[in-house]
Specification:
Number of helices: 12
Radius of gyration: 26 Å
Order of helices and strands: HHHHEHEHEHEEHEHEHEHEEHEEE
Distance between the termini: 46 Å
Strand order of the largest sheet: 2-1-3-4-5-11-13
Oligomer: single chain
Structural class: alpha/beta
Strand content: 15-25%
């Protein structure tokens, strides 16, 4: 393996000149730079990243701790993070928390020990002392998708409130009145935010959300299956199950089919976090889509700004409703057949006026 001395000898320059070229120092002449780069290419020289990091106090490496690598949403997020980091000259080390705070802390500790330049985290909860210490110690950090309230760290996330309102408006227009939600963990900001957005949207139409129609999930398929089984055992089951993430929606679909029921003829199904699989289910699933790729890229840019001394900004992007066929939507050319409201349902108020669309991006200092 070629050394920096071999490169210097091949190019006919000093080791210091080679180092200046490799570090893009402006004091090197164009001729010397050309000869050094030619020697690097001819010898296949690769700089020692560890040695360089000791000299520059930088590793050009970012850490990413995601909540669940098996969740297609986070897989897509990780890919966009890696692509943007590479474009900006950084590498990424990924840790999978598997929705477990202890694994999250293990990965955060390991990444910090490896002297990464900055850290991207989608927190599994808001109570980890290690996460709080890392955020407050000056470690360049950005929260992505989820965040810890009260911690002064830039947050890159999507806002699903308008999209949830659009979903409830859509379901109401199809004649659905009894709606249930499979909520995410109450310890996560996304778990709290989505159930509250759903409750507010129902309230705008005078629709209740009784406790029996709130299933507590953990963003895993099995919890979606259990919650849906409980809904189906109610004396008056819901007409629609809204799962607050894609894996819980797949678990709900399994539970519905295990009872010999059909979507949407017997019960409708909608999901937060659209994924490519949803177009291939029968019927395709109506879902709320997050701008996942844009979130990953924006998170990397915010983190690199912080690392390189520029003021980082929080970014909020809007989610959007993707209408398919899992809630009783008509096929092209068909008319909507409205469901008859339950005799127990109180008269509904007039629907609220349409909301103003969310801005494409909101950038504010964190």
């Amino acid at each position: 393996m070629a050394s920096i001395k071999d490169v210097a000898a091949e190019a006919g320059v000093s080791v210091a000149t080679v180092s200046r070229v490799l570090n893009d120092h402006p004091s090197v002449s164009a001729d010397a730079r050309t000869r050094v780069l030619a020697a690097v290419e001819a010898l296949g020289y690769r700089p020692n990243a560890v040695a360089r990091s000791l000299r520059t106090d930088q590793t050009r490496t970012l850490g990413l701790v995601i909540s669940d690598v098996l969740n297609p949403y986070f897989t897509h997020l990780a890919r966009s993070v890696e692509e943007e980091a590479r474009a900006l000259g950084y590498s990424v080390i990924i840790g999978n928390a598997d929705e477990r705070p202890d694994l999250q802390d293990h990965h955060v500790r390991t990444l910090l020990d490896r002297r990464i330049d900055g850290l991207l985290v989608s927190p599994t909860d808001g109570g980890s002392p290690l996460m709080l210490d890392a955020a407050r110690s000056g470690t360049p950090m950005v929260f992505v998708d989820r965040w810890i309230p009260g911690v002064d760290v830039p947050v890159v996330r999507s806002d699903g409130q308008a999209a949830v309102h659009d979903l409830v408006t859509h379901l109401h227009g199809l004649g659905h009145r009894r709606l249930a939600i499979i909520a995410g963990p109450a310890t996560t900001t996304t778990g709290q935010e989505r159930v509250e957005a759903f409750r507010r949207a129902l309230g705008a139409y005078g629709l209740p959300l009784p406790d029996a129609c709130i299933g507590q999930g953990d963003f895993q398929a099995e919890s979606g299956r259990r919650a849906t089984e409980r809904f189906l055992d109610l004396a008056e089951p819901p007409e629609v199950v809204f799962a607050a993430d894609n894996l819980m929606a797949l678990g709900a679909l399994d539970a519905i089919r295990a009872r010999g029921l059909r979507v949407p003829d017997d019960i409708a199904l909608a999901a937060f976090d659209d994924i490519p699989w949803f177009v291939h289910t029968d019927p395709p699933i109506t879902a709320i889509a997050q701008p996942t790729g844009e979130l990953g890229r924006a998170a990397v840019r915010a983190l690199v700004d912080r690392i390189e001394g520029r003021p980082p900004a929080s970014v909020t992007l809007p989610a959007r409703l993707v209408v398919r066929r899992s809630c009783g939507e008509p096929a092209p050319g068909e008319r909507v057949a409205l469901r008859e409201p339950s005799a127990l349902q109180e008269p509904l108020r007039e629907p609220p006026a349409p909301r103003e669309p969310s801005p494409v991006m909101n950038r504010s200092q964190s």
